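Quick review question:
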C-alpha cells in the first residue's frame, strides 16, 4: 500500500471526532493517573514518557515513540528539518558552524510521534512544555519545529499530517492547553479536518 493510499484510508477511518477522542482520552488519562508528576513540576521527559504509554494504548494500530530521530528517507537515517536562515536568526539559533546558505538544516528529536516506523506514514508529532518554562526561545523553537514537521516547504520531507503543541499547566490540579498545526501553519481545533 502506498503512503498516499494509507493516509487516505487513515483519514477515513479516523474521522474528526474519533481522532480527537482518542487523543484526549490519552491526555486525560495522563492527568488522572500521573497528574502528580505535572503538579510536582517533574521533568518534561518523564511526563512525555507517561503520555507516550497512554497514546500507545489508545493508538494501537501505530507506533508511538518518544525522542525518536530515525528517518529512513534521509541519507543519514536521522530526522532533520530545513529552516530559512533568517528564521534561525530570529529564533537565536544560529551557530558558528552554520553556513551562509539560505536554508539551514537542524537535527530534531520530537518529544512524541505517532507513526509507522520505516515508512513515511507520519500521523502526529507532539512537542510539549510545562507552564513553568519561561524560556520563550525554547517555546518558539518548538512551535517552529511543528510548523516544519507538517510542511514540505524548503525541502522538508517528514510530512506529518498533524502537529500538536501541548502546554501542561503546572498547579495543584494540572491540565493542558493544545495548539494544532497542519500544512506548516497553526490552526484551530475546528480546522483540523477541513
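Suggested answer, residue by residue:
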Amino acid at each position: 500500500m502506498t503512503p498516499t493510499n494509507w493516509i487516505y484510508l487513515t483519514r477515513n477511518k479516523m474521522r474528526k471526532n474519533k481522532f480527537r477522542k482518542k487523543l484526549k482520552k490519552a491526555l486525560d488519562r495522563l492527568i488522572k493517573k500521573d497528574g502528580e508528576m505535572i503538579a510536582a513540576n517533574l521533568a518534561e521527559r518523564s511526563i512525555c514518557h507517561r503520555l507516550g504509554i497512554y497514546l500507545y494504548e489508545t493508538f494501537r494500530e501505530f507506533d508511538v515513540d518518544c525522542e525518536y530521530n530515525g528517518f529512513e528517507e534521509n541519507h543519514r537515517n536521522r530526522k532533520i528539518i530545513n529552516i530559512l536562515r533568517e528564521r534561525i536568526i530570529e529564533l537565536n539559533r544560529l551557530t558558528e558552524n552554520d553556513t551562509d546558505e539560505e536554508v539551514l538544516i537542524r537535527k530534531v528529536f520530537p518529544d512524541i510521534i505517532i507513526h509507522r516506523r520505516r515508512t513515511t506514514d507520519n500521523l502526529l508529532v507532539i512537542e510539549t512544555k510545562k507552564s513553568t518554562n519561561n524560556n520563550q526561545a525554547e517555546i518558539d523553537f518548538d512551535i517552529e519545529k511543528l510548523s516544519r514537521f507538517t510542511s514540505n516547504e524548503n525541502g522538508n520531507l517528514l510530512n506529518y499530517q498533524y502537529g500538536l503543541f501541548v502546554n501542561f499547566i503546572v498547579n495543584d490540579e494540572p491540565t493542558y492547553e493544545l495548539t494544532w498545526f497542519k500544512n506548516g501553519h497553526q490552526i484551530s481545533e475546528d480546522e483540523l479536518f477541513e
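Why it works: The mean pLDDT is 84. Residues 3-191 form one domain.
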